[in-house]
Amino acid sequence: MTASSPTRRRAIAAAAALLAAARAAAPRGAFAQGGTAPETRRAVLGYIALTDSAPLIIAKEKGFFARHGMPEVEVAKQASWGATRDNLVLGGGRGGIDGAHLLTPMAYHIHTGRIVQNGQPVPMAILARLNTNGQAISVAERHRALGARLDAAPLRRALTPDSKVAMTFRGGTHDLWVRYWLAAAGIDPERDVSTIVVPPPQMVANMRVGTMDAFCVGEPWNAQLVAQRLGYTAIVTGELWRDHPEKCFALRGDFVQQHPHATEAMTAAVIEAARWCDTPAHAEEMCAILGRRAWFNVPVADILGRMRGDVEYGDGRRTADPGITMKFWRDHASYPFRSHDLWFLTENMRWGILPEGLETAPLIAAVNREAIWRAAAARAGVPNAETPRGTSRGPETFFDGRVFDPADPAAYLASLPIKKLSAA
């Protein structure tokens, strides 16, 4: 048989057709990987039962991890942010976890050893933001008549140093939102109330027994509080700071170092999931998945409304504003702006959680791995028009008119009348 024989030509044509069909069926970017195939097919990722964990859950449920060569990724529920920290410190190789849906500041706390036993740093890497917006500050029903909303000042008549205001982790996003809200009204969260840590799924139960006056947490727990008539939503956090950053997708630094291609592949899967989650036609299916017993075990109705921007505050107010609801992809929600990490670090300095004068630039450069996000976005086939040009979103304006300029964080910190600074 010669090279030009009909039989050989038919075989070559059949092979070409088979390859073309495989390329068409494969996810975008899969055949472009070449030498960037994942070094491992497995990783263990933690999540808390909050709706902003959706990109990790959807990446698993819809097969995005598998499509990017990581079919054995496990997404494991964590009991609290403290448990998440402990399992990250332990690491996936020792029965813990390799990465997580995480409060953004926690990545820095763990990296610097601030919240690790014996102060031992555990290098961390932020690969993506999981969402913007989507949290809320809720107040007990017994205080509803006072009318505290965007302005917390009416609560001053009821609060004492023994009043309990709950958040989910010291120095985490929820802690910072409720502190900012109180301080903007002249209420010192260090002196005028007692801030306590409560895991997200336990917020409503604690409010039911009357042990708390207010709390800040993500969904669906604020919506559940309203549905059970135990309190009301004073504000959703998109009203405090529109399109504020929230959770992140973070991995242990050693996992990233040992498995760079697997890291990029998982990040690409999370990016694809974020885009899927932010497609309006997918909202109902997404909430149905999250509500399953295997994930949140809550009624879909407690998730869907606020995910669509329909907020029943529980005090007679109602709004339908998609602009203040949770975003997973829109308006660069998935990209980990370094300017946002700088704000988190600055607020942690404000409250004495991190030392004043902390050298933030090298710390952010070490932890925020936005270049991996960009490589992963290309791997996932994201158009260039959907990726931000720089690492800063520029000056940010809060509900009280205060402005954070990432070019001068010291000026912002100096402008805050209520704070608790600490030395290194």
Task: Supply database-style keywords.
single chain, 424 residues, 5-stranded mixed sheet, alpha/beta
Q: Topology of this structure?
A:
Layout: H1 6-25, E1 42-47, H2 54-61, H3 64-67, E2 72-77, H4 81-90, E3 99-103, H5 104-112, E4 124-129, E5 135-140, E6 164-167, H6 173-184, E7 194-197, H7 203-208, E8 214-218, H8 221-227, E9 231-236, H9 237-240, E10 247-252, H10 253-258, H11 260-277, H12 283-291, H13 301-307, E11 310-312, E12 318-320, H14 338-350, H15 360-367, H16 370-379, E13 396-397, E14 403-404, H17 409-415
Parallel strand pairs: 1-2, 1-3, 6-7, 6-8
Antiparallel strand pairs: 3-10, 4-10, 5-8, 5-9, 11-12, 13-14
Structure description:
- The chain is an alpha/beta fold and 424 residues long.
- It contains 17 helices and 14 strands.
- The protein has a 5-stranded mixed beta sheet, sandwiched between helices.
- A hairpin with a 5-residue loop joins strand 13 (396-397) and strand 14 (403-404).
